[in-house]
C-alpha cells in the first residue's frame, strides 16, 4: 500500500494544487491525511487536493512523487477512481455493495446541484428537514434500515415526482414541488456477476427539502414507522449504511 502525490500544477484560488491518492484503500488515504493535518474538506471522493505549500510536508511524511498521468492510471487500476462533472464534489466511492435481490454494484456518491441524466435515472430520494432542524427518517422492512424517503421511479414520473410520491407514501408528508433542490446523486456500476434488475438505470437522484412546519404529524404505512430525528440521532441511525457519507454530507450542509 502506497500514498502517491503529483507536483503542484493545478491552478485554483490563487495557488497551485497537487493530488494525493492511495493505490489501494481510501481508509489508508484518510489516515495519511490525518497525520499530515489535512482538512477533510479537501477530500474529493478519491483524492485529496493539496495546496502547493503542503507538498514538501506530504513528501517528507512518505508520499511518493509521481506524474499526473500516473495518478489517474493508478486510480483506475485500483478501482477507486470517482468520476464527476465540473462543479461537482466527490463524496465517496463504495465498492462491492450487495442488495436484498442479490445484485451487487460499485457506487459513486457525488455532491451536485446538476440534474442526473433522465433516461438513466431509476430512483430518487429526498432528505426532509423541518423548521426546528429535525430530519425525516423512514424504516424499510426490505432493507432493515432507517433512511430518507425514496424509491424507484414509476412510468411517466420525473425524478422529482418520484421523491415527492415516495415521501407521501412512506411518511404522509406532502411536499410541494418547489421545495425540492437537487444536492447530489448515487451512480451505480453493476458488477460483472450481477444481473442488474432495472435495465439501463444507473443514477439515483438525491434531493433535499426544508419545510416550514415544526415536526408535522407522520402517517406512514402500517408496520413501517417514520419519525423525526435530530441531526445526531439521524446520523447515528444510518451510520452502518453504505450511503452514510451522502447522509452526512446532506445533514451537515447549510
Automatic annotation (TrEMBL):
Coiled coil spans: none
Pfam family, one: DUF4031
Gene3D superfamilies: Nucleoside Triphosphate Pyrophosphohydrolase
Keyword line: Hydrolase, Magnesium
Residue stretches making up the Nudix hydrolase domain: 117-252
SUPFAM superfamilies (UniProt xref): Nudix (SSF55811)
Protein name, entry field: Nudix hydrolase domain-containing protein
Organism: Nostocoides veronense
Amino acid at each position: 500500500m502506497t500514498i502517491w502525490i503529483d507536483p503542484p500544477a493545478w491552478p485554483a484560488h490563487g495557488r497551485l494544487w497537487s493530488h494525493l491518492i492511495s493505490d489501494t484503500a481510501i481508509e489508508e488515504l484518510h489516515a495519511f491525511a490525518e497525520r499530515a493535518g489535512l482538512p477533510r474538506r479537501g477530500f474529493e471522493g478519491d483524492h485529496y487536493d493539496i495546496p502547493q505549500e503542503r507538498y514538501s510536508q506530504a513528501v517528507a511524511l512518505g508520499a511518493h512523487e509521481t506524474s499526473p498521468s500516473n495518478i489517474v492510471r493508478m486510480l483506475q487500476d485500483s478501482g477507486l477512481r470517482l468520476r464527476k462533472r465540473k462543479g461537482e464534489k466527490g463524496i465517496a466511492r463504495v465498492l462491492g455493495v450487495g442488495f436484498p435481490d442479490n445484485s451487487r454494484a460499485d457506487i459513486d456518491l457525488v455532491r451536485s446541484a446538476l440534474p442526473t441524466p433522465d433516461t438513466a435515472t431509476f430512483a430518487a430520494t429526498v432528505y426532509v428537514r423541518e423548521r426546528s432542524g429535525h430530519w425525516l427518517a423512514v424504516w424499510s422492512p426490505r432493507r432493515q434500515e432507517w433512511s430518507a424517503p425514496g424509491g424507484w421511479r414509476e412510468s411517466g414520473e420525473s425524478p422529482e415526482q418520484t421523491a415527492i410520491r415516495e415521501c407521501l407514501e412512506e411518511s404522509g408528508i406532502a411536499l410541494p414541488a418547489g421545495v425540492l433542490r437537487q444536492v447530489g446523486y448515487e451512480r451505480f456500476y453493476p458488477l460483472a456477476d450481477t444481473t442488474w434488475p432495472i435495465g439501463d438505470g444507473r443514477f439515483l437522484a438525491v434531493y433535499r427539502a426544508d419545510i416550514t412546519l415544526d415536526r408535522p404529524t407522520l402517517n406512514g404505512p402500517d408496520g413501517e414507522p417514520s419519525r423525526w430525528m435530530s441531526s445526531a440521532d439521524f446520523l447515528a441511525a444510518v451510520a452502518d449504511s453504505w450511503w452514510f457519507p451522502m447522509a452526512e454530507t446532506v445533514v451537515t450542509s447549510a
